[in-house]
């Protein structure tokens, strides 16, 4: 019932992989590194997930239905924090990351592949808000991305904002009705690991390579139990994006929904449905 991917096997070695598959080093139970609920590798399909930092590596386990077996590269500080959490047995709920909370120290805005960094000194930051959106009586986990300033196309000298056109060129579609689920955007995925939001991944820049982070939290972003449960149930996340100043920091999910609908009515909203992890 245990899955050890080729990438994980290459990192831990054939001997250790064989011991895991034989059940020698496999725990009787585990807290799923994605949804944080209990799992049993003897009774349900289980993925091995290897977190690799600069100097440390940690092998964790997850429901195969949540994320596939994979290698996840994280900063050493993130990994050491995870080690302390695992050692302390802290499996309870994390602080909420409801509407209006931005990713702490979010990475500088990196437009999709080919856009490159912006030449201006005041580089925009991608603010990320996590909330749930009700579609057809079902709650869906959602991420809303809004830069703190305009995103210019490389080579352009004007003050225009090309954030939405760049995303549309890479598979996102304009949203005209928030009540309808966005279409899937090929090659993109959302990395939720250890019960926290780590990154939004875009397709690899060349064949045979790994997806790259379009947005990555400097520190993993805690999400609510409801958001995480919905993500584990649906195995997908709705990712919305709007230009700077379109959404703002909304303190409640109903206000976030209103802001999304207003942005969509004004032609200022694009979105895509993305699978979890997907690396």
Features:
alpha+beta; 2 domains; 5-stranded mixed β-sheet; 14 strands
Percentage of residues assigned to helices:
10-25%
Which radius of gyration do the C-alpha atoms yield?
19 Å
- H/I helix tally: 6
Estimate the strand proportion.
Answer: 25-35%
Order of helices and strands: EHHEEEEEHEEHEEEEHEHE
Give the number of domains.
2
Strand order of the largest sheet: 7-8-13-14-9
Describe this entry's structure for a reader.
Residues 90-120 are annotated as: Disordered. The chain is of the alpha+beta class. It has helices at residues 6-12, 14-21, 76-88, 163-169, 225-234, 253-265; strands spanning 2-3, 30-31, 38-39, 46-52, 57-63, 70-73, 126-135, 138-147, 173-174, 189-193, 196-202, 212-222, 236-241, 270-275. Helix 1 crosses helix 2. The chain is globular and about 60 Å long.
Provide a compact summary of the structure.
This protein is an alpha+beta fold and 279 residues long.
List the helices and strands and how they pair.
Blueprint: E1 2-3, H1 6-12, H2 14-21, E2 30-31, E3 38-39, E4 46-52, E5 57-63, E6 70-73, H3 76-88, E7 126-135, E8 138-147, H4 163-169, E9 173-174, E10 189-193, E11 196-202, E12 212-222, H5 225-234, E13 236-241, H6 253-265, E14 270-275
Parallel strand pairs: 1-4, 4-6, 8-13
Antiparallel strand pairs: 2-3, 4-5, 7-8, 9-14, 10-11, 11-12, 13-14
